Amino acid sequence: MWYSPITGKQFPVPRHKTEVKIDTVKSIMRDAGIE
């Protein structure tokens, strides 16, 4: 679990052996408060 001080939320960041799908990246960025 990762914590974003910007949003105050925790969110999972999966570890992948292959490329991550763009929707997964967008979801992570949204949860982190980046996008």
Quick take:
With 35 residues, the protein is of the alpha+beta class. 31% of the residues lie in helices and 17% in strands. It has one domain (2-32).
Kindly report how far apart the N and C termini lie: 19 Å
How many strands in all?
A: 2
Number of helices: 1
Number of domains: 1
- Sheet with most strands: 2 strands, antiparallel
Instruction: Give the structural class.
Output: alpha+beta
Note the beta-strand portion: 15-25%
Helix share, percent: 25-40%
Q: What low-confidence regions span 5 or more consecutive residues with pLDDT below 50?
A: none
Features:
35 residues; alpha+beta; two-stranded antiparallel sheet; flat
Structure characterization notes:
- By secondary structure, this protein is an alpha+beta fold.
- The protein has one domain (2-32).
- Helix content is 31%, strand content 17%.
- It has 1 helix and 2 strands, in the order E-E-H.
- Strands 1-2 form a two-stranded antiparallel sheet.
- It is flat, with a radius of gyration of 10 Å.
Question: What is this structure's SSE topology?
Answer:
Layout: E1 2-4, E2 9-11, H1 22-32
Antiparallel strand pairs: 1-2
